[in-house]
Every structure is written in structure tokens, then in C-alpha cells.
Design a protein that fits this description.
Layout lengths: L9 H10 L12 H10 L6 E2 L5 H6 L3 H14 E2 L1 E3 L7 E2 L10 E2 L3 E6 L14 E6 L3
Parallel strand pairs: 1-2
Antiparallel strand pairs: 3-4, 5-6, 6-7
Length: 136
């Protein structure tokens, strides 16, 4: 699928274009705003593919609440390729139907965590959850 220079092969890209609407930008460092605009403008169903964490864009947002909102949107719309072997089908990691933040019902809490404080991509989820229940 990808050659040594990490470019899509023409036949593989033609398959992708038959399956989805595609937006393309020149291979420059300023393509992130275009990618985000195209995804947002295409509706809630639209997904985007990139390995970029978009940290620099999140850092430009005015407050923590807006940054968190962007992160949640990113988790629901960013796809990651998990199968990149030549001659095989393109496989994407599933988008979660739940939020990977602390969740509570009032007397119990579910807290996602990593033992090694590893920075993850937005589409990667914690491997462990701590479940706490209030004593009655």
C-alpha cells in the first residue's frame, strides 16, 4: 500500500476514492487547517485520517473547555490505519462509542489510566480502568 517513501500507490488510492469522498492537499506542513475545515464542513458523519495529534492546534484554542471539546470531537472523527501491509485490505481502528474520560454515576467512578504515563494518540484508549464504588 505505502512505498518506502510513504506515498500511496496509485491503484490503492483509486480504490479509496471509489469508496469515499476525498480531499487532497499538497504535501506541505500547512495542510492541517485544510484537513480540519474539510472534515468539519462535510458533516458529522465525516472522518479523517492522519497520525498527527493536532497538539499545536489544540494549544491555540482559547481555554481548557474548548480544548477538551476539540479532543472529544477528534476522538470521534479521527481514523487510524492499523493494517498497512502491501496487498492486504486497509484496516482502520474502530472509533469508540464511549468517552475515555472519568465517568461517574454518583456512587461509582470509572477512571482511565496508564501505568507509564505514556502520551497516546487521540484515537488510542487507555488500557486500564480503575473502578471505584462508594462504601454504603
Amino acid at each position: 500500500m505505502l512505498t518506502q517513501r510513504f506515498r500511496w500507490r496509485k491503484d490503492e488510492m483509486e480504490k479509496v476514492q471509489k469508496q469515499a469522498s476525498c480531499f487532497f492537499a499538497d504535501d506541505i506542513s500547512e495542510d492541517d487547517p485544510f484537513l480540519l475545515y474539510a472534515t468539519l464542513n462535510s458533516g458529522n458523519h465525516c472522518k479523517f485520517i492522519t497520525k498527527d495529534l493536532m497538539r499545536d492546534h489544540k494549544a491555540c484554542l482559547p481555554d481548557i473547555k474548548t480544548q477538551r471539546l476539540f479532543f472529544k470531537w477528534q476522538q470521534g472523527h479521527q481514523l487510524a490505519i492499523i493494517n498497512r501491509f502491501p496487498g492486504s485490505k486497509i484496516t482502520f481502528q474502530h472509533i469508540l462509542t464511549y468517552d475515555t474520560v472519568v465517568q461517574t454515576t454518583g456512587d461509582s467512578w470509572h477512571i482511565p489510566y496508564d501505568e507509564d504515563l505514556v502520551e497516546r494518540y487521540s484515537y488510542e484508549v487507555p488500557t486500564k480502568w480503575l473502578c471505584l464504588h462508594r462504601k454504603t
